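To fix ideas, we reproduce below one chain and its tokenised fold.
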Amino acid sequence: MSSLLSHKKDQEHLRKSISDSCPASSAASSRSLRHERLLRLGSSGSSGTVTDTSTNHAESYFLQRENRLSAKKRAEEEKMNSDYKKMYEKAVATNQRLKSRLETSKQELSEIQDQLQRTQNGKPDDGSNMLEAEKKGSWSLKKKISDMEDQLKVKAELKLENQRLKDENGALIRVITKLSK
């Protein structure tokens, strides 16, 4: 009877230790608990056949329970590992996609910067050359226009003087003809 009481106390102690055990070290703790239980059962099993049968029954019950718990914990760990693996693979795929987009954006940026550089370097020179040429052209045109205006003024003055001289010449011819008669 005392062996049964000690066995029940052992069972309660085992239940508490199993429920208090950490899930991360479940495999190691379940092995150590199983080993402890076997040692206790082996030391208390010398009292008789009744206790041996109940011990075997209790031992098989606890072994089945441990197996179920460890299988459940393994399944949870595998599920968590597969979840982490899926999350990792998803993160890697996202990183690859973002890296390719970044590379594409960098290439586009460098092309645009090259175009901008070429535009800035090419246009102002061409623009300033064209501007200078236009300025020179307009200056030469203005000079030609002012020269032509001056020539027109001179031409008008010459026409007036020529007309005056013709009139004088005609008057002189009349005076000479009157004097010669």
